[in-house]
Write a structure and sequence with these properties.
The chain is mainly alpha-helical. Helices cover 46% and strands 7% of the residues. Strands 1-2 form a two-stranded antiparallel sheet. It is elongated.
Length: 89
């Protein structure tokens, strides 16, 4: 699995930044860290057939990002349009 994390950093007034100790530990112990992560879909988001219950956004590279953005916008547009039609009907 790719180490694509947003790291919390601290910056001094001079602009020098450092990664937090917690994030340094994650990088140094990546296999141990990732083994403890739960990637299961939470029960309250499991809605078979509902397109917008959980939208996965992949951003490991620019192509994945662009494809995910298009897919997400399409799902949200479709869902909003369905909701608007239900309110009118």
């Amino acid at each position: 699995m790719r180490k694509n994390l947003h790291f919390k950093s601290t910056c001094s007034t001079s602009g020098a930044c450092s990664i937090s100790d917690r994030d340094t530990w994650k990088l140094e112990h990546w296999d141990e860290y990732i083994a403890g992560c739960n990637f299961e879909i939470p029960e309250n988001l499991k809605r078979p057939g509902a397109k917008d219950s959980l939208i996965i956004f992949k951003n490991n590279n620019e192509k994945e990002f662009e494809n995910s953005m298009k897919k997400c916008v399409s799902i949200l547009d479709e869902t909003m349009n369905e909701d608007s039609l239900q309110q009118v009907g």
